[in-house]
Design a protein that fits this description.
Layout: H1 2-29, E1 50-51, E2 59-61, E3 67-69, E4 72-76, E5 80-84, E6 95-98, H2 119-125, H3 129-140, H4 146-179
Antiparallel strand pairs: 1-4, 2-3, 4-5, 5-6
Length: about 180
């Protein structure tokens, strides 16, 4: 029992250190509000953001009730993107959404269901790390709209790894049942 308590205390101490580190990072990157007009739209990209030059087709709700393509974007982990419209100001929060490949690449002009992916493409998606890295690099080199594709192939790779892990666990349980 004492061992469990010591382990819990060690985890708590590590979690506290991580939270303090995150707080320090936030305090270092925060913009001083006394010199900042929080009502005027951004004149240049907010810290960590870049101008949207077609990387994503992210329509944001604006203050006038309309939707506009994001002007400032930031790619986040986990297949997400944060964005500001051209009307947003430093006092506004960014909209965070999941990234997906654009519909027009799915041949949306016909009523047929989507076709199967070619076998060579599937084998690259589930292949070795270097093969997958080469595929991901190729998508990174696309001139526009590549963030959605990269997010989708990353999601597929994670799901495939989870499936492989679950299949291995099922096989282990089957072996244990046969031996019992």
């Amino acid at each position: 029992m004492a061992k469990g308590i010591r382990h819990g205390e060690a985890c708590h101490i590590r979690e506290k250190e991580l939270l303090e580190e995150a707080l320090d990072d936030l305090q270092r990157t925060s913009v001083p509000h006394n010199n900042l007009n929080t009502k005027q739209p951004f004149e240049e990209a907010p810290p960590g953001y870049k101008e949207n030059r077609g990387e994503v087709n992210l329509n944001l709700p604006c203050k006038d009730g309309m939707r506009r393509v994001a002007k400032w974007i930031k790619q986040l982990d986990g297949g997400k993107v944060a964005g500001y419209s051209n009307d947003d100001a430093p006092g506004d929060l960014p909209l965070i959404m999941d990234l997906y490949a654009l519909k027009e690449y799915y041949h949306d002009d016909d009523d047929d269901p989507a076709g199967a992916l070619p076998i060579w493409f599937l084998s690259v998606l589930v292949g070795s790390g270097t093969t997958f890295a080469a595929l991901r690099h190729a998508f990174d080199q696309l001139p526009t709209n590549n963030w959605g594709f990269v997010a989708e192939i990353d999601r597929y790779r994670v799901m495939d790894e989870q499936c492989q892990s679950l299949a291995a666990q099922v096989d282990l349980i089957k072996q244990e049942l046969q031996m019992a």
